[in-house]
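During the no-cost extension, the postdoctoral fellow (Dr. R.K.) reprocessed legacy sequence entries with the updated structure-token encoder. One reprocessed record is reproduced below for audit purposes.
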Amino acid sequence: MFSTSTLSTNELTPPNSQAYNAFMAKHVIRISEAEAAATSVATLLARIRAGAEIVIENGTRPVAILHASEPVRRTISECIALLPEDSTATIDPDFSKDVEAAIESHRAPLDPPAWD
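Re-encoded structure tokens follow.
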């Protein structure tokens, strides 16, 4: 029912990054307006929750794009699982303080645009 495509990873990417890039590649599902109308909203939402972006098309022209309102986030254990086997990375007792300091040093003030 759905036609799917996955964006390819760059062939020049170092080998350690290829698994990460393949995991993070955006999964795009393209469907026609008729398919969208015939498909239950629950089915579309399940695909979106799984990380897909759905493009509803009229012919070849995109009419709507459905995607998650927030990006998919990883847990620390998922990040650690992506490390190469020979990695020397460790999480020391001050790890949370380091993360907090990094966040604070890059925090930009919220300055929303003024709408007329």
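The longest helix spans residues 95-105. Residues 3-105 form one domain. The remaining legacy entries will be reprocessed before the final report is submitted.
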